[in-house]
Specification:
Blueprint (H helix, E strand, L loop, with lengths): L4 H16 L7 H8 L3 H13 L17
Helix pairs in contact: 1-2, 1-3
Protein name: Rrf2 family transcriptional regulator
């Protein structure tokens, strides 16, 4: 089964959130650095995940946002 690069990066980022996340906030730049993914590319992936309701938006409860 072949997955697109975008799908593989999205899955790697979600796994990273599950392993490193403590229920608090995590910056996308940290996720990108740990997984060797471009931060700008990861922003686009996370926007798609938010629109698909795979990720919840904690924007108003978290001081860190997805802006670059």
């Amino acid at each position: 089964m072949n997955l697109s690069k975008r799908s593989r990066y999205g899955i790697r980022a979600l796994i990273d959130l599950a392993q490193v996340g403590d229920g608090g906030c995590t910056q996308l730049s940290d996720i990108a650095a740990r997984n060797h993914i471009s931060a700008k590319y990861l922003v686009h992936i996370f926007i798609a995940l938010l629109k698909a309701w795979i990720l919840g938006n904690r924007r108003f409860r978290c001081p860190v946002t997805f802006s670059m």
